[in-house]
Amino acid sequence: MRLGTVIGRVTLSKTIPPFKGGRWLVISPFTRQHFQHRREPPVGLSRDPSLVAYDRLGGGVGDTVGFSEGREAAMPFDQPTPVDAITVAIIDDVFYSPQT
Question: What rounded mean pLDDT belongs to the chain?
Answer without folding.
Answer: 84
